[in-house]
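pinging the channel bc i need a second pair of eyes. not urgent but kinda urgent?? the chain im working w is below, pasted from the shared doc
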Amino acid sequence: MKLERPVSISIIIPTLNEAEHIRSTLEPLQAMRKRGHEIVLADGGSNDDTVPAAIPMIDKHLQCNTGRAMQMNAGAEQARGDIFWFIHADTLVQPDMDKELLAARITSKSRWGRFDVSLSGNQTSLRIIERMMNWRSRFTGIATGDQGIFICRSLFERIGGFPSQPLMEDIEISIRLKKAAGKPLCLHSKILTSSRRWESRGIARTIFLMWRLRLAYALGANPADLARQYQ
């Protein structure tokens, strides 16, 4: 009798000048490599030590055009796993989250999903933001890249991967995934993502900016125009 091959995960990380964070991101993933999963680093042209620091801790390194969506698609093209798990370069996961992901996949019919998110800063307002992010995602079925989106390979290929746009690629792929396969599997375990975006720009200012950009996108604004406003 032929034994069924274990389900494998490809952890795909887009990077651009993330030398400060990349080793911390990769360290908890090493236990997953030992369990047969792979790490694919899709770099968008870093000119710091991101790639040299990462090489000993990954399985594949790709040099890509800059752009998170393009980098994640390039990583998926070279990945061998049955499930693609997209993690940002400033995100920390727990070393056993692969086990939770696979166990949840067995008990759920969902073919895509995400984790809850926690923000790294200590401000009380950040606790409110992360709770709202997780609640909103459950209510709408829309996931953000900060939440560690995972997708079965066959579903990812069927919808054509991430859209080639410079902003809101996570929102758009969530919309397409919902249409193709229903709402995401929302896992309660939290991944820790950097709060530098909120802290550097100002928390209130960043919240209103993101609300404004999301509303404009929902009303049909060009993602390239929104990306310029975001930058």
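so Residues 9-197 form a domain with the Spore Coat Polysaccharide Biosynthesis Protein SpsA; Chain A fold (CATH 3.90.550.10). and The chain has eleven helices and eight strands. — does that match what u expected or am i reading it wrong
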